[in-house]
Specification:
The chain is built from 5 helices and no strands. With 158 residues, the protein is mostly helical. Helix 1 packs parallel to helix 5, helix 2 packs antiparallel against helix 3 and helix 4 packs antiparallel against helix 5. The longest helix is centred in the N-terminal third of the chain and has 26 residues. It is globular, with a radius of gyration of 15 Å.
Length: 158
Amino acid sequence: MTDPSKSPSDSASPDTLRKLHSARARSAYERAVAACRHAGIDPEAAQTVPTGPVGRAANALRLSAQSLTALAGTAPDPAADARCARNAAATAALAAQVAGSLDERAETATALRAALTASQAAATAAGGTAAGQDAALNAKADDAEERAAAAARTAGWM
């Protein structure tokens, strides 16, 4: 991710913001994939109308993958790019909840809390008047994503 002291200014170009949000989205997606794998969730378990946590997590994973693919084929749009990162972080949080239900280790609880924090930070960076362009909120979201990835590795998910 980025060092908050080196994050782009509020006037960062759309291309710079695209790189920032894309990196965060890819990291969150990788965490989601890893947590799903750890929980034994097959991507084929995706349900259009999910009936349980496994179906919801698999469907969210599918939607995140589609969103990342679409992101690569569009012009930079800081608000849309930040929403993609937010959605990937929410997917990772959902996957972490399912993976976290498998055991009661402290590392698992820490990974779940970090995933939830990263999801909240990504939502804040994408929401309201920030629309993906607020440097301080983006830096906080990047930091939270880095911590969530580290916690997922410590938990053995990645």
